[in-house]
């Protein structure tokens, strides 16, 4: 009886205590912190990477120091180059700007810069020795300026320069700039881009100054070229690639150029040149007698690829026929190209995979953006056993076609396929086991499809599975509402998984159990509220985790443990954090050194309760240890006073038990 009395009294005390609100002293303390925070004058979002130079702040050049050593400077008040770059600033993007002349002193402080871009400004002249201090420069671009000519010694000192871009300037005669690129001045120059200048004609001596040079890549696109001297490219003894695309060169002139191509040339781009089918046939025949093994013929007119269109061409390895209006391919169309490895037929009007293009020698096939073209709405058919003789194919792009459904045996025969792209293909149905034949598959992109049936919410549907060889799996924007352990079973080699922009609200704790090599996991833009069981306990290699734009209101202890193992980049932006004492554990972790992985800390804000709405999570975390009691049994002095009588009675009863035995 005496013990029952004791328990009743204890129960009364505990019930009364648990029913109490936070002590008034604590509530008042929180309100004081709130007032102090609202008075703060700290500037939010101010970038520490921005700086100015060259005069008063209102009239100066703005700069931003980004990642990987890149510094960008711009502004109409930019009348000089920055002088205080560090040795870590290896790339400078300068423009728009307001400099008309480069002098010997302008670039004297840029000794460590390896990549320099000067663009969008009134630059006209470059003095002799202007670049003499830039001994590390490897890539130089002077584009969208008023430059018409360059002094023969303009690039003196640039012995390490490898790439030169003079795009969209006012150059009308090539020899006016090539004199400055002689081998004794630029001994390592291998790429020259002169596109976008109104050149019109190429004369026989335009490239004479580069005769003894190392140039391997020459690009002259969009230069309004209407005539090129047949022997203009003879000086290039090492030239490997020549780009003449987007010009108006007559077919007769092209035939003359082909007849005089350097023997070293292996890549030839004549895309977007107005040629009829017969003219293209003649040029192909002429090219088949050269050493050209890579040909770009995009944006021409080839509605039908018939047998005999391509001549016997033993050395051809790459053929790009993008946007040529192709509707039909005849069987045997590629019979003369027995060594063809790379074929691009994207953005045409094909409605299926023609048997005539399935050359056994192919390693790369691009059929993206077909489906009959923009004006003809037609589904893209992938028949069973289509690829049965394509055992050497390594990359297949079928993205942005209206595929709708893929049968089980569609990929039978693709034993060497490593990359498969089915992005935005209007897929709704994948037959069970459809990917089973792809034993070598490394990368699979199924983004932007409607794959609800492939990931059923219950056991009534048949879940899709993936090859164990996968390293990259993209499933963003697929309408996925649930995933199971079966979906991702045996993916031990997977390093990258994208499940963003789906409709996931919960995740089973075994969803990623087999992914022991997972490094990147993107769960952004779902409806996840978090998890209370270890979800990533087996993913010790995880470096990047994105939970951006979900419904996370609080970060549980289990979530903290999951990301504390080795995650270097944690994205929690865009979540509606509830800044209550339920967030206390996360707040303590958030202020510690392990939270350095959280990117964009300053942008995380409280959404509720009302008194904390809009306040930085960093600020809340700093005060949460003070405003949240360590135990629900913590009492204020007034609370203790209110319970004094009950404790007194309890003490008297216990004392009576010892003094007066019943």
UniProtKB/TrEMBL annotation:
InterPro entries associated with the record = Cys-rich_flank_reg_C, Leu-rich_rpt, Leu-rich_rpt_typical-subtyp, LRR_dom_sf, LRR_TM_domain-containing
Residues in domain LRRCT? 575-629
| GO cellular component term of the entry, any | plasma membrane
Task: Keyword check for Transmembrane, yes or no.
Answer: yes
This chain's protein is named: LRRCT domain-containing protein
Record-annotated membrane-spanning stretches: 640-660
PROSITE patterns associated with the record: LRR
Q: Which UniProt keywords apply?
A: Leucine-rich repeat, Membrane, Repeat, Signal, Transmembrane, Transmembrane helix
Which first-to-last residue range defines the signal peptide?
A: 1-19
Q: Which organism is it from?
A: Darwinula stevensoni
Pfam families, per database record:
LRR_8 (PF13855)
For this protein, the record's SUPFAM superfamilies field holds: L domain-like
């Amino acid at each position: 009886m005496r013990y029952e009395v004791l328990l009743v009294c204890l129960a009364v005390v505990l019930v009364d205590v648990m029913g109490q609100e936070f002590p008034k002293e604590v509530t008042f303390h929180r309100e004081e912190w709130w007032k102090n925070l609202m008075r703060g004058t700290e500037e939010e979002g101010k970038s520490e990477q921005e700086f100015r130079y060259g005069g008063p702040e209102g009239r100066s050049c703005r700069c931003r120091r980004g990642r990987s050593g890149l510094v960008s400077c711009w502004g109409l008040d930019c009348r000089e180059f920055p002088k205080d770059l560090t040795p870590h600033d290896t790339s400078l993007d300068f423009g728009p700007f307001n400099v008309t002349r480069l002098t010997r002193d302008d670039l004297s402080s840029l000794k460590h810069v390896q990549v320099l871009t000067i663009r969008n400004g009134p630059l006209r002249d470059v003095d002799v020795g202007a670049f003499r201090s830039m001994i590390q420069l490897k890539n130089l671009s002077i584009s969208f300026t008023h430059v018409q000519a360059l002094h023969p010694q303009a690039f003196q000192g640039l012995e390490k320069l490898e790439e030169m871009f003079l795009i969209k300037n006012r150059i009308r005669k090539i020899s006016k700039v090539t004199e400055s690129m002689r081998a004794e001045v630029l001994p390592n120059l291998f790429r020259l881009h002169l596109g976008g200048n109104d050149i019109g004609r190429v004369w026989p001596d335009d490239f004479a100054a580069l005769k003894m040079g190392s140039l391997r890549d020459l690009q002259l696109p969009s230069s309004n070229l209407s005539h090129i001297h047949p022997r203009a490219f003879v000086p290039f003894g090492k030239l490997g690639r020549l780009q003449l695309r987007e010009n108006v060169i007559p077919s007769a002139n092209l035939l003359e150029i082909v007849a005089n191509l350097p023997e070293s040339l292996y890549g030839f781009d004549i895309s977007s040149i107005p040629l009829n089918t017969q003219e293209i046939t003649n040029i192909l025949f002429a090219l088949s007698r050269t050493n050209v093994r890579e040909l770009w013929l995009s944006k021409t007119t080839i509605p039908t690829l018939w047998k005999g269109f391509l001549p016997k061409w033993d050395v051809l390895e790459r053929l790009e026929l993008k946007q040529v209006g192709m509707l039909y391919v005849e069987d045997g169309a590629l019979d003369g190209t027995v060594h063809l490895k790379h074929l691009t037929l994207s953005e045409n009007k094909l409605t299926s995979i023609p048997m005539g293009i399935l050359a056994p020698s192919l390693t790369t096939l691009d059929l993206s953006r077909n489906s009959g073209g923009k004006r003809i709405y037609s589904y893209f058919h992938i028949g069973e056993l289509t690829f049965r003789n394509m055992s050497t194919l390594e990359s297949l792009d079928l993205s942005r076609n209206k595929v709708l459904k893929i049968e089980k045996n569609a990929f039978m025969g693709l034993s060497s396929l490593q990359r498969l792209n089915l992005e935005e293909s209007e897929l709704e149905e994948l037959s069970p086991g459809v990917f089973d034949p792809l034993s070598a598959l490394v990368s699979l992109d199924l983004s932007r499809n409607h794959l609800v049936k492939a990931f059923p919410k219950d056991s009534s549907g048949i879940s899709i599975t993936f090859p164990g060889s996968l390293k990259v799996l993209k499933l963003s924007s697929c309408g996925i509402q649930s995933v199971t352990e079966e979906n991702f079973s045996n993916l031990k080699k997977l390093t990258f998984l994208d499940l963003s922009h789906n409709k996931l609200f919960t995740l089973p704790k075994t969803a990623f159990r087999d992914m022991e090599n997972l490094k990147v996991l993107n769960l952004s833009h779902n409806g996840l509220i978090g998890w209370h069981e270890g979800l990533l306990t087996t993913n010790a290699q995880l470096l990047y985790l994105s939970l951006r734009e979900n419904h996370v209101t609080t970060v549980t202890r289990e979530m903290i443990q999951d990301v504390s193992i080795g995650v270097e980049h944690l994205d929690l932006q865009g979540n509606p954090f509830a800044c209550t004492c339920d967030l206390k554990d996360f707040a303590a972790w958030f202020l510690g050194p392990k939270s350095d992985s959280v990117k964009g800390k300053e942008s995380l804000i409280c959404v509720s309760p009302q008194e904390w709405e809009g306040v930085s999570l960093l600020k809340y975390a700093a005060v949460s240890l003070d405003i949240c009691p360590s135990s629900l049994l913590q009492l204020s002095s007034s609370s203790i006073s209110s319970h004094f009588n009950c404790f007194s009675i309890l003490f008297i009863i216990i004392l009576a038990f010892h003094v007066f035995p019943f």
